[in-house]
Design goal:
The protein is mainly α. It has two domains: 63 residues; 143 residues. It is built from nine helices and no strands. The radius of gyration is 20 Å and the shape is globular. The two termini are 29 Å apart.
Length: 222
């Protein structure tokens, strides 16, 4: 039997960013009721909102640069990198920095540094093996580039083959290494290939943030 959405449920106002999770929960319940989604699936979806809300609330209440300075140039965080792979990580970092300086820009350099710092403790196998530092760097840049919708397919746009060519690599294998890096960093892969969701605003450059806000405002208008 199809459930009906209770009109007594009040949606929180959109003026407060801190109330966005409550709005999302109400929207989920409404949509699931309209589509006749099983209650157990609704509960699972709501549980996901509960899981991520504390981090969301922490981020929006923390002082942080906005706009073009959302990802200021920052040093690499070495604290979590195991001592026995530090030299190898340094080689990967140098390759990433060069690539971002020439192809992407400083915001992408910062995002790649953050991703490498997060993934480093989970990558000792890749770092100890014969994988070239440039190949690992390509995987890092691929993740950040895909997650920020930086790559295109038309003339004049940056393509994945431009990235791999710059680093002296073939194009095959870059996505596999990218997904391995995501897993090491604790980032869940999207359900639809080849979508890459970075799972953290700290890895989004200003252009991508601006686009997300535009899409949000468009949906609010509808």
């Amino acid at each position: 039997m199809k459930r009906t959405y209770s009109p007594t449920v009040k949606l929180p106002p959109l003026s407060s960013d801190g109330r966005a999770p409550a709005l999302l929960r109400a929207f989920i319940r409404f949509c699931h009721a309209e589509r006749g989604i099983r209650p157990v699936l609704t509960d699972q979806t709501l549980a996901a909102v509960d899981e991520y809300e504390p981090e969301y609330q922490r981020v929006i209440r923390s002082p942080r640069p906005q706009g073009p300075m959302a990802l200021p140039d920052e040093e690499f965080g070495w604290d979590g990198v195991p001592a026995h792979v530090r030299d190898r990580v340094g080689e990967v970092l140098a390759a990433c920095d060069r690539c971002c300086d020439d192809l992407f820009g400083p915001e992408y350099r910062t995002a790649c540094r953050r991703l490498l710092a997060r993934a480093g403790p989970g990558l000792p196998g890749m770092l100890r093996k014969t994988t070239k530092p440039a190949a690992i760097a390509a995987g890092l840049c691929w993740v950040i580039g895909k997650g920020n919708h930086r790559f295109g397919r038309t003339d004049g746009e940056l393509r994945v083959k431009d990235l791999t060519s710059y680093l002296g690599l073939g194009q095959s294998g870059v996505s596999e290494r990218g997904y391995q890096i995501m897993r090491a960093a604790g980032i869940k892969a999207a359900s639809a290939y080849p979508e890459v969701r970075l799972g953290s605003p700290g890895l989004l450059v200003s252009a991508r943030r601006k686009r997300i806000i535009e899409l949000r405002d468009r949906h609010r208008g509808l």
